[in-house]
Amino acid sequence: MSWGGQSIIFGDGGQTWDFVHVSDVVDAIITSLRNERARCVFNIGSVEATTINEATNLIARLAGREYLKPTRADEILLY
Question: Rounded to two decimals, what is the model's pTM?
Answer without folding.
Answer: 0.61
